[in-house]
Amino acid sequence: MEDRSARLMRAALDICLLALIAEKERYGYELVRELGKEDLKLVKEGSIYPLLRRMEREELIRGHIVPSEDGPARKYYQLLPKGRERLRAWGSEFVQFADAVKSILKGRVDLEQH
Amino acid sequence: MNSTDVRSTALRRKAVKTVVECEEYWKRCRVPQFLTQELVIELESHLEGAISDGKKPEAISRPKEWARTQARDCSTPQSLKDRILDWACLLLSIGAIFTALLHVLQWTPAFRIGIRGFALIACMAAATKLLSSPKASFVVFNPLHRKGLIAYGDYWGICAGLILSSIIPLESVTEVKSIYIEWSWPYSLVLLVGALFLEVLIRRRSRDPWITSTPDMGRPPGLALVDDAYLQRKRELERLALRWSIFSTGSTGLGWWIAPGEAHWIMELVFALSICWLLYLLYTEFTRRSSGGCASV
Predict the structure, then answer these.
(1) Which of A79, B15, B120, B277 lies 20 to 30 Å from B53 when distance is taken between CA atoms?
(2) Tell me: the pLDDT tens digits for B101-130?
(3) β-strand A74-79 against A26-27: which pairing, if any?
(4) Strand, helix or coil at B63?
(5) Nearest to B69 among A47, A63, A74 (CB)
(6) Of the candidates B127, B120, B106, the residue with the CA atom closest to the CA atom of residue B174
(7) pLDDT value of residue B153
(8) Upper half-sphere CA count for residue A89 (Cβ side, 13 Å)
């Protein structure tokens, strides 16, 4: 069960990250924290960074280092226009998919028991 | 200092250890310098956030696992040609150092060298490659990982073990077919020039176009609370290693002086290695002192 939810999480992680970054500039741990607030626990917290780097290479987001006086510097990510477009496309695709799954399950499976 | 502060400092100490281990791993994986700096920044800020949320660094991820996950898409695998060049350069460099030392120690422009001599160079190259691999970074070379032992001492111990275990079996072979060649100084010169040429070639090939266009960010402030403590401990260990190396060079020198027959030859090489290592440690010590890094310790 855990493996399945981890796989689902992996499939939706890039959209979630883009959506969180779209809201405002965020750094790595802040993203993990926000996902945790929504009850989306990552199996490996470090797994978001390769994904962020990939999105940076694809020019969906841009990272910049912000030094700090009293602690380590942070790398903040901001959404780029290409990322905004991609988020819109991926988001509607995902919602469509989720709605389709929901309509299949509705009336056939008693989800309240879970 | 209350118990919360003590706990927080202990957690930060663990976090610094994680950062040091991961950074060493990324360097060994040939992750470009600017990317390594970014990875360090991200790891540090992640650990800082996790600690302030009351999590333990080991609860986030084990250092090895974190380092591998991040290195997977940052390091560039070496091509076969680059690997061959690396090996050739290493063999030539070690060969050049050995033969130069033998010229000096025996105070002669020419000497006889047999199979054992070449086997020794190959063993040293293999040991150096083995110990400089990313996998070794979590075991051997992290001074924070040790408790009172010296990482340099480990290196020496492993090399000495490899050398002795290779020399002793070869002894019986070379006794029967004593193949020796006359080694004169022009050969040593060729080795040296060859090693330098390959080194320049490797540096040119491995120059990353990103590095020239991306300014060096310098070392970020990091987990400042314990960064200084870590540096001080590292310096202490390095100075201890220096003292140990001076002692071992003196001992092996004495051994070389008094050892009879075949053992004399082996001790000569061990002595030569000690001198090499001592010179390296002295070089790093003086470099640090000249840049003012060691004045306070």
Answers:
(1) A79
(2) 788 877 888 888 877 778 778 877 887 787
(3) antiparallel
(4) helix
(5) A47
(6) B120
(7) 56
(8) 7
Interchain contact A82–B (C-beta under 8 A)? no
Separation CA A50–CA A4 (nearest Å): 21
Q: State the complex-level ipTM.
A: 0.85
Query: Is A70 in the B-facing interface, judged by CB distances under 8 Å?
Result: yes
- Cβ-nearest to B42 among A44, A68, A75: A75
- Whether A10 has its CB under 8 Å from any CB of chain B: the answer is no
Written as one letter, the residue type at A107 is G
A21: domain CATH number?
1.10.10.10
CA distances for B122 relative to A18, B40, B163, B223, angstroms: 52, 35, 10, 42
Instruction: Report the C-alpha gap between A35 and B261 in whole angstroms.
Output: 72
A–B CB contacts, 8 A cutoff, strictly below: 76
Task: Check CB contact of A45 with chain B, cutoff 8 Å.
Answer: yes
Rounded to 5°, the CA angle B250-B254-B255 comes to 115
* Chain segment B14-66, per-residue pLDDT in tens: 777 778 778 878 888 888 888 888 898 899 888 888 888 888 766 677 778 88
pTM to 2 decimal places = 0.69
Q: How far is A90 from chain B (nearest CA, A)?
A: 23
Give the one of A33, A47, A71 whose C-beta lies nearest to B48's C-beta: A71
Verify whether the Cβ–Cβ distance B220 to A71 is below 8 Å.
no
Neighbours of B31 (CB within 10 A): 23
Q: How many domains does chain A have?
A: 1
Nearest CA in chain B to A64: B38
Q: How many CB atoms lie within 10 A of CB B101?
A: 18
* Nearest Cα residue to A56 out of A37, A36, A75: A75
